[in-house]
Design a protein that fits this description.
This protein has 2 domains: 30 residues; 213 residues, MetI-like (MetI-like fold). 33% of the residues are buried. Helix 3 runs antiparallel to helix 4 and helix 8 packs antiparallel against helix 10. The protein is an all-alpha fold. The model has no long low-confidence stretch (mean pLDDT 85).
Length: 250
């Protein structure tokens, strides 16, 4: 009952939008541009083997590799900036500037550099996902209470003790918030990379269906990508609730 009370309104709105979509698409009768939700579901079911056994694993591998490298480099960069003012002044503007360049414009360059291998898509995913992880983790490390630091120093704590026992636990909520944003963006990054140049993957399949003017075929992998993003977000949310049990939630 608690779940229904919390998400019932959103669920009803989604159902209502799908009904309007179904009716509107039927009235317009432009299946190659705007297929009905039932057409998309039928397409997914009819193509379930290539979609789920070939293209979904290829996309999921890009997401996992890209996210893992983003976490590694993002957290490392955040820690480096938090301990060095010079590094912060040098890297922080570059990190901000990296987000002003359209990724869709860089993706073809990565294809030229790395070919149609997985790494051209992984680099696109990293560029999209490392920013929220880096910035949120850095903000968490810098948000440590000065009063707590001074208290630990008076008790004889070293800088190492303060870092591992105060700053790291304090930045975990910030890191997880950034990760929730990153996991959804990772799906977009993987799809963009596959759309530009790939031999397998949901983004590649959507582009291939577009060249065949198959509207339902274009929407089918998009629906799966959306469900993957939602699933990853829920996983991080579940991890957050288990790690941060002390934090009050509604």
């Amino acid at each position: 009952m608690k779940w229904i009370h919390k998400y019932g309104a959103s669920f009803c709105l989604i159902i209502l939008l799908l009904v309007f979509w179904e009716i509107g698409a039927e009235l317009l009768d432009l299946g190659f541009i705007l297929p009905t939700p039932t057409d998309v579901i039928v397409k997914i079911w009819g193509l379930k083997e290539p979609l789920f056994l070939e293209h979904l694993p290829a996309t999921f591998l890009i997401i996992i590799v890209g996210l893992s490298l983003s976490i590694f480099f993002g957290v490392g960069m955040a820690i480096w900036m938090s301990v060095s003012r010079t590094v912060e002044k040098t890297l922080y503007p570059l990190i901000i500037s990296s987000q002003t360049i359209p990724i869709i414009a860089l993706a073809p360059i990565f294809v030229l550099w790395f070919g149609y291998s997985i790494w051209s898509k992984v680099v696109v995913t990293i560029l999209i996902t490392f920013f929220p992880i880096t910035v949120n983790t850095y903000d968490g490390l810098k948000a440590t209470s000065k009063e707590y630091k001074e208290m630990l120093l008076t008790m004889g704590a070293s800088k190492k003790d303060i870092f591992f026992k105060l700053q790291i636990p304090g930045c975990v909520p910030y890191f997880l918030s950034g990760l929730k944003v990153a996991v959804t963006l990772s799906v977009i990054g993987a799809a963009i990379g596959e759309w530009i140049g790939a031999q397998a993957g949901l983004g590649y399949f959507s582009r291939r269906m577009m060249t065949q003017f198959d509207g339902a075929g274009v929407f089918a992998p998009i629906v799966i990508l959306s469900l993957v993003g939602i699933g990853l977000f829920l996983i991080v949310t579940l991890i957050e609730k288990n790690i941060l049990k002390w934090r009050k939630t509604d």
